[in-house]
Each structure stands twice: as structure tokens, then as C-alpha cells.
Automatic annotation (TrEMBL):
Its cofactor is Zn(2+). Residues 84-182 form the HTH araC/xylS-type domain. SUPFAM superfamilies: Ada DNA repair protein, N-terminal domain (N-Ada 10), Homeodomain-like. Keywords: Activator, DNA damage, DNA repair, DNA-binding, Metal-binding, Methyltransferase, Transcription, Transcription regulation, Transferase, Zinc. It holds the Pfam family Ada_Zn_binding. This is AraC family transcriptional regulator. The keyword Transcription regulation applies. GO terms for biological process: DNA repair; methylation. One of its GO terms (molecular function) is sequence-specific DNA binding. The keyword Zinc applies. It comes from Oceanobacillus chungangensis.
Amino acid sequence: MKNHPATDKQWEAINENDKSYDNQFFYAVKTTKIFCKPSCKSRVPNYDNVSVFYHAEDALHGGYRPCKRCKSADYRLPGEEWVLHAKTYMEEKYSSYLTLNVIAAGCHGSPFHLHRVFKSITGITPLDYLHEIRMKKAIGYLQQTNKPIGEIAALIGIPNAAYFSVSFKKWRGETPREYRKKRGKGADR
């Protein structure tokens, strides 16, 4: 999983775009945060900015994204592992502005492919999953705090309180205020 400096042979393979070294290692460029196959036709980086990874997963976990030019973007985690990665990404970033494009970029794939694979494995879309995460977090805030509804909406990544209330009602069958009132957390401000 650790990155290494390029050996003389690896550096030569990078400089010569040697296809015979593809799948033996990937090189990552610190300044661009992109990793490539040795055969990549992009400009040769400065040696001091290059790290070598022996597995694409290690480069991904190291914070690098696949190169689109050499098609290292064709590398994808196997379906179930990729979906798990997408779920973790959404669970960590649910309070941020997230669209399918943002989630797909964060998970190193195309929005269409992520939507299709995620739904085929989980039965729901990535945005439906994100919605569930946000609504469950809202329940926690409604049960544990007296924060205003608008503030709770913002905390879970929905800046529009009215939209949050409508979404919550569709999901739970009652508004956030009604839910809170039933649970005895007092009137909303």
C-alpha cells in the first residue's frame, strides 16, 4: 500500500512510455494528484514529484485520481467494493453539497456508471441513499436537540428549510415539527 520513489528501470519506462510495464506499477504525480500507467503519453513529470504504487487501489487510497488520458480511469473497484466506497463517501460528506456528479467524481467513476452499479447492488439510487442518511441524521437532531428546523436542515446538507420539511414529511409521514412535538422536545423556534 505504500508509495515508493521510482527505480531507474521504472523511471526509464515512464520516460519511454513503455507499455510492457503497464499493470506492473502505476506512477503518481504529487503536484497534480493524478496516477498514470507507465505508457501514458502525457508530459513526463519531474522525477522528484513521482511516487510509484504497485496497485491502483493503493494510489486511490493515497488520494490520487486516475488519469483520463491513459485510461487508468478505466480501472474501477469491483462493483460491491465500489458501492461500499460510495456509501462511505456519502456517509462522511452528507452535510456537504452533493450531486450525483460530485459523488461519482469523489468515487472515481462516471455518474451514469455509479447510478447503474449502485442501484443494481443496493436496489436504490445513490441519491436515494444520501436522502436516507440525511433523514436519519435529522431524526437524531430532532430527538437530541432543540435546534431550529432551518438549522437542522443546514446541518444535514439541505440549505432550504421548506424543502427539508417537505422531504421529511414524504419520508416519515409527518413534518419535522410534528415529529419533534410527539417526542416532547418542545416547540420549534
